[in-house]
Amino acid sequence: MSYGPAITLETAKKAAAAAMAEVRRNAWTMAVAVVDTAGDLVYFEKMDDTQVASVLVCQDKARSAARFKRPTKAFQDMLTSGGEGMRVLRIKGAVPVEGGLPITIEGKIVGAIGLSGGTSAQDGQCAKAGVDAVG
């Protein structure tokens, strides 16, 4: 899949709003980041009482998904497979934790979203809600 034009602020806010709506529906506490195709921050939001580390983690997940053109869960799966999958630990910028997803519009990657604050699966569920709202 190739890159398209970078995500707009309006679209980034729409993705983040949908992701945070899923967070609130489940009574979780998270932070969300949306980045452009280069992995640079376009939009960020953090709920009150979110763990401090989630501020950076959500941005790292989004950046990884954008730059590597794949969900961060793909790296998580590589790592958990062991053996040669352990090489993922040497790939600079690859985040092997679910919760980062590329955002595609009309078949092109325009950016990515990352969530942090819950379990990996919860982060992934909320990221998917954000992607689904704009994809």
What would you say this structure looks like, in words?
With 135 residues, this protein is an alpha+beta fold. The protein has one domain: 2-Layer Sandwich (Beta-Lactamase), CATH 3.30.450.150. Helix content is 41%, strand content 20%. The protein is built from four helices and four strands. Strands 2-1-4-3 form a four-stranded antiparallel sheet. Helix 1 packs across helix 4 (120-134). It is globular, with a radius of gyration of 14 Å. It starts with 8 loop residues before the first helix and ends with a helix. The mean pLDDT is 96.
Number of helices: 4
Q: CATH-wise, what's the superfamily?
A: Haem-degrading domain
Whole-number total of structural domains: 1
Output the CATH class name. Alpha Beta
Distance, first to last CA: 14 Å
What's the story with the biggest beta sheet? Answer: 4 strands, antiparallel
Amount of beta strand: 15-25%
- Spatially, the strands of the biggest sheet line up as 2-1-4-3
Q: What name is given to the CATH topology? A: Beta-Lactamase
Shape, per Cα inertia axes? globular
Ranges where pLDDT stays below 50 over 5 or more residues in a row are none
Mean pLDDT: 96
Following the backbone from N to C, one meets helices and strands in this order, namely: HEEHHEEH
List how many beta strands DSSP finds.
Answer: 4
**Corresponding CATH architecture:** 2-Layer Sandwich
Instruction: Return Rg in Å.
Output: 14 Å
**Structural class estimated from helices and strands:** alpha+beta
Helix share bin? 40-55%
